[in-house]
Amino acid sequence: MNTLLLITSAPTSIHAWHAFRLAQALKAKNESFRVFFYQDGVYVANDLQWVPDDQRNLKEQWQQLDIRLPVCVSAALSRGITDSENAKRHKISQHNLANGFELVGLGELADAVQTANRLIQF
C-alpha cells in the first residue's frame, strides 16, 4: 500500500509530530510512503527557526529520517522560506530552506495523490 502523508500543521502542533511518528513507523516497516509539506506544514523546513534545547526539534527529526522531503514552493515563499535559487529569482537577500528539504510545485502533490492508495492529512 502506498501512503501519502500531507503535512499541513505547523511544527509546534501535536499533529505535525504525529505525522513524523507515522512516517518513522512506515519506514521501519519498509512500507511505501511519501510526504508533502503544505500550508503551515512548510514551517518545519525553516532553517532559521529556533528551538529551545529542552524541546525536540521536528526539522532535525525529519532530516534524520533520510527520506525525500518535498515542500510546496508557493506556500514556503509566502511564509518567508526559500532556497538559494528562488532567493535569486525573487530578489530575496537570503535563503533559509533547511538541508534535506526541497521546494517543489503543486504538480508533485497532484502526482502523489494520484498514485497513493491512502492519503492522511495532519
UniProtKB/TrEMBL annotation:
Subcellular location: Cytoplasm
GO biological process: tRNA wobble position uridine thiolation
MF term (GO), any: sulfur carrier activity
Gene3D superfamilies: DsrEFH-like
Keyword Membrane on entry: no
PANTHER family documented for this protein: PROTEIN YCHN, SULFURTRANSFERASE TUSD
The name this protein goes by in its record: Sulfur oxidoreductase
